[in-house]
């Protein structure tokens, strides 16, 4: 998978497995304890009277999580891990933020390469520049740059049952790193 120039975790490494577990733990913390997450992780960051774009998004997230019902925890899924890592590695080729791969694929196409069990009911979050699971999840939940708060929506979507994580840290791309979270609803 990917280029030999990559630093940090790799798609088949024990490091990626550990990072994926940390990411899953943080995502499940938001899903299963949204009110507590808001109080512990977000409230200390709020600056009263500050109306910057970040503070507006942060305060909106804090209020939203206080009224969000707990969700079931997600589990990692190998196919979603492969899909997410493929896209993280592909970032070296495109050097573009977004959700379209160098081969024109979207998240649904990529997940279907590895499994059919999710039936196309999938979602994806990408975060650039952060390399610590807690910071990545906090950034995606606050979702400053997406007025629709789609990253938060993916993390909290009550139908999703599984996720996969891809991660790449390299000098060869803008921002120095990419984290990809792929989500899926496995029909039972």
UniProtKB/TrEMBL annotation:
<protein>
    <recommendedName>
        <fullName>SCP domain-containing protein</fullName>
    </recommendedName>
</protein>
<dbReference type="InterPro" id="IPR014044">
    <property type="entry name" value="CAP_dom"/>
</dbReference>
<feature type="domain" description="SCP">
    <location>
        <begin position="69"/>
        <end position="183"/>
    </location>
</feature>
<dbReference type="Pfam" id="PF00188">
    <property type="entry name" value="CAP"/>
</dbReference>
<dbReference type="InterPro" id="IPR035940">
    <property type="entry name" value="CAP_sf"/>
</dbReference>
């Amino acid at each position: 998978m990917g280029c030999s120039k990559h630093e940090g975790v790799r798609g088949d490494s024990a490091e990626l497995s550990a990072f994926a577990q940390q990411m899953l733990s943080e995502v499940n913390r938001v899903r299963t304890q949204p009110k507590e997450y808001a109080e512990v992780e977000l409230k200390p960051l709020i600056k009263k009277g500050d109306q910057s774009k970040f503070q507006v998004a942060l305060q909106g997230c804090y209020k939203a999580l206080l009224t969000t019902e707990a969700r079931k925890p997600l589990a990692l899924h190998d196919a979603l891990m492969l899909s997410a890592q493929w896209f993280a590695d592909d970032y070296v080729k495109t050097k573009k933020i977004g959700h379209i791969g160098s081969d024109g694929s979207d998240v649904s196409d990529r997940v279907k390469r590895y499994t059919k069990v999710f039936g196309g009911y999938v979602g994806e979050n990408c975060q650039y520049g952060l390399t610590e699971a807690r910071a990545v999840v906090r950034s995606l939940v606050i979702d400053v740059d997406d007025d629709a708060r789609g990253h938060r929506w993916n993390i909290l979507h009550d139908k999703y049952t599984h996720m996969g994580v891809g991660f790449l840290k390299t000098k060869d791309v803008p921002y120095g790193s990419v984290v990809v979270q792929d989500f899926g609803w496995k029909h039972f």
